[in-house]
Amino acid sequence: MRRVTQGPERALPEDLTSAITRAGYYPALVCDVVESALAGEEVVSHLVHQETTFDHETVRRHVTVLAVTSRRLVIAHADDHAEPGAQATATATTETVPLDAVRGVMVTHVVTEPEGFVQNSPSRDITLTLGWGAVSRLDLLPAQCGDPDCTADHGFEGTVASDDISLRISAAADGEAAVERALSFARHLSRAIGGSVRA
């Protein structure tokens, strides 16, 4: 695979560079921070996801790059960070996680008209959630009692979930190819961390 090199030990695979360029969000900046975080390691799998959100009357663009090497998961996120009328500003943050620290790869499939679903159909929305313990979410609900006449306070019960990053990819908005790329990335990362996920 031909590589794009911009200095000693700094290279991105051509297909990753192309994906970042297609996303269209300050590609030179995004390529630079991803290269820096990779520190010369070879990329074996990657996913680039661009999203536009609306905050009141402000349009904000975001791009997330996930790159897997033989030892690490590299996460880069860049977005607009300027107030309306102010000079354009972007922030770009990278995080590096050892693969053995990644706790889970979760894929949620959303399918309309499931009665007509055909196996391996790409026409769906998915949410890809990765957890490595940096962020935990605690969901609490009042504890329930089996006695319908009971009025005692049974406290709370809940679950702790790790969802450090969550990306929603829609066939309608992003294209069926984007859904397939996300599923392929999920399968690869799942194998890399030694688990399994049906994607």
Question: Structural class, from secondary structure content?
Answer: alpha+beta
Number of strands: 11
Query: Biggest β-sheet, characterized?
Result: 4 strands, antiparallel
N-to-C SSE string, H for helix and E for strand: EEHHEEEEEEEEEHH
Strand order of the largest sheet: 3-4-5-6
Shape category? globular
Q: Total number of helical segments?
A: 4
Percent range for β-strand residues: 35-45%
Q: Termini, distance in Å?
A: 26 Å
Low-confidence stretches: 1-9, 195-199
Mean pLDDT: 82
Number of domains: 2
Radius of gyration equals: 20 Å
Residue share in helices? 10-25%
SSE blueprint:
Layout: E1 3-5, E2 11-13, H1 14-23, H2 27-38, E3 45-55, E4 58-68, E5 72-80, E6 90-98, E7 104-110, E8 125-131, E9 136-142, E10 156-162, E11 165-170, H3 171-174, H4 176-192
Antiparallel strand pairs: 1-2, 3-4, 4-5, 5-6, 7-8, 8-11, 9-10
Helix pairs in contact: 1-2
Describe the model.
There is one protein chain. This protein is an alpha+beta fold and 199 residues long. It is built from 4 helices and 11 strands. 21% of the residues are buried. The strands form 4 sheets. The protein has a 4-stranded antiparallel sheet with strand order 3-4-5-6. The protein folds into 2 domains: 3-99, no CATH class; 102-199, no CATH class. The radius of gyration is 20 Å and the shape is globular.
